[in-house]
Every structure is written in C-alpha cells, then in structure tokens.
C-alpha cells in the first residue's frame, strides 16, 4: 500500500489514460505459474490510478509503478477507513457507561429478592448476557425474515447493520441521561436506596443490542471487504477501534472536567467522589449528541462507499488452463 501511495505521488504530474485498460497490470498468461489476485479497475479514488501509469522503463520500479490490482486493494483499504473512524465513538460511549454505572449502582438498591442482590461491579456483564440471548434470536429469526423482504443473504448489508448499532448507541446514551436525572431526584428526595439498580439495565440492554449490530457487523464488514492477503489482519481493526475508543474516553472526561471546572461546585461535571453532586446526566447527553453527529457523518460516508466485487480468486490452475486454451486457439487459427 505504501508503494501505491509513493508511486501515485511520484506520478502526480502524469496524465491518466482515457482507457483504464492502458493502466499497468501483469499478464495472466505470463504469470500462469503464480497464484495471483486480479481485481478490475473501479472509478473511485482516481488519484491513486496514477500509480499504475506505465512508463518506458524496462524494469518496473515498484515505488514508481503498481499493478491495477495493487491500486484497487489500496482503494479498498482507503474506503474502509471512514467506517473504522466512525465506530470509535461507540466505544467512547461504552467506556463511561461501564465505569460510571458502577458508581451509580453504589447509590441504588441492589436487591432483587430477599436472597439475591446485584453487586454494582457486575453491571458491565449485563450487555454480554443480552448478547448471548439476542445473537441467536437475530441469526435464526430476524435474518431469515428480513432476507425474504430484501433478498440479501444477510438480511441487511454490513453497513446498514453498523448504522443500526450507531443509532441505538445514541438512544442508549439518551436513556442513560434520563435515568441519571431520575436517580438524582430520588437520591435528593429520599436518600440513596429507594431506587432499584435494575433501572440501569435499560441503558445496558439498548447498548447490548447496539453491540450486536455494530461490532459484529463491523467485524464481518472488515473481513469481507479486506484484500485477500489482509483477511486475518483485518479483524484487528475491530479491536483497534475499541482500543482507541477507550483511550479517547479518558481524554474526553479530562477535557470535560477542565472545561467545567469553574462552573460547578464539585470542580467539574465528573470531578469528585460524590456522584450526586456531579452532572453525569449532562455528560451522557453530550455523548448522545456526539453519537448523533457521528451517525450523520457515517450515513454520508456509508452511502458513498462502493462494495468490492465479490469475485472468486483466480487460481494458478485456472490461469494455466486459460493460457493453454488461448494457445490451442491460436494454433488452430494459424493452421
């Protein structure tokens, strides 16, 4: 990929040919003994096509000339990056939901029955439990039903699935903000215990459904769209997205506290150890707004994304057969 970008930059002053077939690609006949991948040219990110402009050099320099397939693979990865960045905000929302909910749970009634209580530290397990229940329901009931309506093998496309999850994450943050307003009102009027911890399961349930759509859809999207040589590495993009989300969440909390330091008695929306004096509801509302803005950006980039052609890879044996058939046809014509 680096060679493609370097070659495109070096050839930036060259004129693209009118016919894309004039761009450089190795001959299938010449490379019949090799297992190579061939991708057709697409009319996107045309500035990268300059990396495949042929020159008069006898020995192609890979830092000046790239195959069309190499260029197309670079286009695929470049097209996937906006979706990658748009999903970071979802983990940015998940991180404070997991941590601050524990603090909220300490001020609420953990009792379910006389003998069963919910330890606040176990609250982050709730989305996982919901996932264990919802994923089989989604795969065995929802997908077959939607498949009949849309005709798509997975019911809805990967990008649509990610978009549904991003929408639900926004709703989850909104529900968390409303729940925090209710919790503070009860704590202010009646003390710390009259409200049940189970109320927090609402926001976790919504986020668990969002996980099922976005994270699973993102994993499937990366794997199906990534070039063949990067199939296994593409799965790491999901974990990179989550890691960046957790890291940026820490930065966001510090920025919010610094920006609101002089506007609250606690020294910031999230500062101090007394959550009843904080403004967690405003922070959740901020995350909901950020999620909504992120979703709008995602819709724009997702609508412009072009899925890669899902053609079977060209195997060496198949290329060799095609080459033999062409040779036989040529001999027949000459005779």
Automatic annotation (TrEMBL):
Main location: membrane
Keyword Transmembrane helix assigned: yes
Keywords: Membrane, Transmembrane, Transmembrane helix
Protein origin, superkingdom: Eukaryota
Membrane-related topology note: Multi-pass membrane protein
Subcellular location: Membrane
Entry keyword annotation includes Transmembrane: yes
Transmembrane segments: 76-97, 118-138, 158-178, 198-218, 238-256, 282-301
GO molecular function: transmembrane transporter activity
One Pfam short name: PTR2
Family: Belongs to the major facilitator superfamily. Proton-dependent oligopeptide transporter (POT/PTR) (TC 2.A.17) family.
Protein name, per record: Nitrate transporter
